[in-house]
Write a structure and sequence with these properties.
The protein is mainly alpha-helical. It has 6 helices and 2 strands. The chain is elongated and about 70 Å long. 31% of the residues are buried.
Length: 192
Amino acid sequence: MVPLRRYVTAFLFVIMQVIIFYYWRSFPLANTIFTDGIPQLGSSAEYLSARYGWDWWHLWLLSLNQLLPMVLAWSLVHPGLEEYTRMHRWFSTTAIRINLWVFAVLTVRWWLFCNTPFSDGASACNAYDYCCVFFPSPWCPNSMPCIPNKSFGDLGRNNEMTQHWAFSLVFFLMSLWSVSINADLRDFGVLK
C-alpha cells in the first residue's frame, strides 16, 4: 500500500505547474502583439503579418509545457498504466531540450533582432515605442516621430518578451523537476 502523502506531494506539484503555466498563458502570452493587418492608412498600404515567424513558433513551443502537468495527472490517476508514466518521462525529457532551445533562440534574437532598423514589425520583442525611433517604417502607423524625441538608446525589450525569455528558464527547471519527480514516484511505487 502506497502512503497517501506520496500522492499529495505529486498532486501539489501538478497544481504548482498548472498555476505557473496559467499565469504565463494569461498575461505575457495573451498580451504579446504580433502585427497582422494593414498598419498604415492609404491606398498603397499593404497587408503585413508577423505571425508564424521565429517569435511566434518559439512561443508555440513554450506552450507545449502544458502537457507536463496534464500527463503527470493522468499517470497519478491511473498509476497502474505504465504507458502514462513513460509518456510523462518522455514529455519531460523532451521539454528539457525544447525549453533550452527556446531560451537560446530568444537570447540570440534579443541581442541581434530586437529594436533594429531591419527587425520592423516581424519581431515581437521590439519596444513599445519602436515606431517613435523608426517612424518611416511600413510597419509603423505613425507618419512623424513621437514627442518627446526618442533615440535608439532609449529602446529596450518589451515586457512580454522579457517574461517569455524568463519563463523559458522557469519551464526548463520545471521539466528537470518533472523528470526527477517521475523517477521518485517510480522508486516509491506510486507509478509503474
